[in-house]
């Protein structure tokens, strides 16, 4: 059973701080990882894709991948109240093309 | 502007009704997906189409019937649903089959009474 695990939270950070979201995955062959942001009642929005070990930065977001440790993270710098949402980590299922294995999501609350 | 659109936004249907959900993508993608998402759960894959052909059916009950008229359009026909089928139905697309980078539409909130 391929799994992606995330802490459900809520993760509470003050405005302006760095939010650190983490996930681990069991599918050792997986090469593709994604972070989706989902506001309450809305659909998931793709915010970061990462395929190689190391860091990938896009604006205030940095995704980190460590394949040896089977660990993916998302850092959000200068957190804003508008970042409050559920963040879903997903990995490509190597057994089924096009299938994503999702974590259960981490709820982030950015406080004023 | 979202490049994957879905209609309707909301749908309430009785257990004996027949209805359809519609999805259109404007990104030139060749793979399209239907997902179901229950509250506080991640999306669950239902169907995948590649070049208008059904590639994956995740053992979905036959009361859900997908259709892909062309590479930009995806329908989900609903018949004899149960209250437990109430959920957010999400359409997604990716550049090609085998490409895991998927973009979701806004979803249809379905309530079965």
Please, could you describe this protein's structure?
The complex is a heterodimer of chains A (112) and B (113). With 112 residues, chain A is mainly beta. Chain A has no helices and eleven strands. Helix content of chain A is 0%, strand content 54%. In chain A, strands 2, 4, 5, 9, 10 and 11 form a six-stranded mixed sheet that branches. In chain A, strands 1-3-8-7-6 form a five-stranded antiparallel sheet, with no helix packed on it. The N and C termini of chain A lie far apart (40 Å). The relative contact order of chain A is 0.35. By secondary structure, chain B is an all-beta fold. Chain B is built from no helices and eleven strands. Chain B has strands at 4-7, 10-13, 18-25, 31-37, 44-50, 53-57, 64-70, 73-79, 87-94, 103-104, 108-112. In chain B, the strands form two sheets. In chain B, strands 2, 4, 5, 6, 9, 10 and 11 form a seven-stranded mixed sheet that branches. Chain B starts with a strand and ends with a strand. The mean pLDDT of chain B is 96. The A-B interface holds A 32, 34, 36, 42-46, 49, 88, 90, 92, 96-100, 102-105 and B 31, 33, 41-43, 45, 48, 50, 55-56, 88, 90, 94, 97-107.
H-E order of chain A: EEEEEEEEEEE
Q: Based on CA inertia axes, which overall geometry of chain B fits? A: globular
Global shape of chain A: globular
Number of helices of chain A: 0
Distance between the termini of chain A: 40 Å
Radius of gyration of chain B: 13 Å
List the helices and strands and how they pair.
The complex is a heterodimer of chains A (112) and B (113).
Chain A: E1 4-6, E2 11-14, E3 19-25, E4 33-38, E5 45-50, E6 54-58, E7 61-66, E8 71-76, E9 85-92, E10 100-102, E11 106-111
Parallel strand pairs in A: 2-11
Antiparallel strand pairs in A: 1-3, 3-8, 4-5, 4-9, 6-7, 7-8, 9-10, 9-11
Chain B: E1 4-7, E2 10-13, E3 18-25, E4 31-37, E5 44-50, E6 53-57, E7 64-70, E8 73-79, E9 87-94, E10 103-104, E11 108-112
